[in-house]
Amino acid sequence: MKFARHAYVALAELTWAAVLFLFIAHLALSYGLLRLAGETGLTGDVFTYIYYYGVTATTVGYGDLSPGGMPGRMLATFFVIPGAIAIFTAVLGKLLTGISGVWRKRMQGAGDYSARTGHMLVLGWQEGMTRQLMTMLASERTDAEPLPVLLARSLEENPMSETIDFVRSERLADPEALERGGIMGARGVIVRGENDDETLAAALVAATLNPAAHVVAHFEFQRTADIAARQASKIETITSLSPELLVRAARDPGSSQVAKLLLSAGTADTAFSMDMPEGLAPLSYGKALIGLRARCNATLVGIGRNGKVDLNCPDDAAIGFGDTIYYISDHRLDAGSIDWNAMEGGGR
């Protein structure tokens, strides 16, 4: 009785097990009936019959094989052809439904990107700002870099399906959701929640799950940003720059345009960073400044070291492996393609 109930449910829901059972049963029964009808041309060889059954089920109908007698033709007309086509259609329908279901789940944020590496992970969604942010990330992404992943709780489906992947979560600080977003392999994390409390929690959890990732968090209040920096020194905090820009633009006309140029990847003269390669002999700041200008048409502006940035350094300041340099250029440079030793020697 229990087996019969399971069989009824499987057939009613048309599970893969039920489809496989119907296929094997119909294939075998069709073979037996045609053999009894004397259709030896079709049933004399098993592989020949499988070929005939396949072209019949897919409605290809090459015409090279067909029943020769009237009983065989009647069987093909009323049993073999309708059953084979029905089973093939059921298989095709289930495949399409399954593929569509997987795609819909990904669109609705149920995808799993835990195996992804080298991507950017963005936590939080604010329609205008986050859309612009994701567009900028997409414009800077190389062909070899995976799509960025957005983790948000206020969206029902992926808002930018052509350029990003999407994970939906009820909490930005949910470790399971962050793992689905690929936090362990992310090279950078950008956090901006609906308020500072949400941003702080998400940034701290992200930094804990992947200490190697560079976490950047946007806060409305400087005090909260200071708390985040004290709790995890590797978190780079950003607060609203509007008051500072207003004052600077008033005292030094054009300052806001300079800031916009330096921070926008869509324009020339953008500020970039570069980690100095391993095995590099100590290089003076002055020679690096001259060398980058002469060789790469780039302007060196500062050094990042031990979590601190120093701009407009003295010429004799040493730069080496482990340091980050900041420069202005029309495009991002590749540290491995630059002859740093020739700069130290004064070559061009």
TrEMBL record:
The chain crosses the membrane at residues 14-34, 75-97. Keywords: Ion channel, Ion transport, Membrane, Transmembrane, Transmembrane helix, Transport. SUPFAM superfamilies: NAD(P)-binding Rossmann-fold domains (SSF51735), Voltage-gated potassium channels (SSF81324). InterPro entries: 2pore_dom_K_chnl, K_chnl_dom, NAD(P)-bd_dom_sf, RCK_N, Trk_Ktr_HKT_K-transport. It is found in: Cell membrane. It is a multi-pass membrane protein. Residues 172-230 form the RCK N-terminal domain. Gene3D superfamilies: 1.10.287.70, NAD(P)-binding Rossmann-like Domain (3.40.50.720). Residues 23-95 form the Potassium channel domain. This is Ion channel.
